[in-house]
Amino acid sequence: MDLIHWIVVFFIIGIINLFIALSAIKHFLNKQGQIETEYDMQCFKLMVKKQMYQALLQIIVLGIMGIIGLVGIVTEKLTGLDIFVFILLNVCNIVLGMYAKKFEKIARTLSVEDELFANEYFSICNTWIKKPFPNF
Questions:
Q1: What is the model's pTM?
Q2: H helices, E strands: number in the chain
Q3: What pLDDT score does 112 carry?
């Protein structure tokens, strides 16, 4: 298989991962519009844990795609059209990632009435943004 084919394979894997993650966030938001109960909090924690692990997977997949592309450019194994496709796929990743981030932001700004849940919720949101692994 040519390098461009490997780039496309890793792009497709990344897109599948992105849509699985996006689907999980949308499903959570449709079921729990706010954090009111312990059950809501547990569902939120589970969703965030999965999102964090999927984000790590996405970094690996897109990192491999990027390395293959750069190696192809440096070794001149990618043609001008291949380079254009590589750039186009990266632009698609950026645009789709920005689209998905909108839903993550919604999930991090839910209404939390109970003070006990609010502290835990904001701590989880902070972990989601700043740490690679869940610690809750």
A1: 0.89
A2: 4, 2
A3: 93
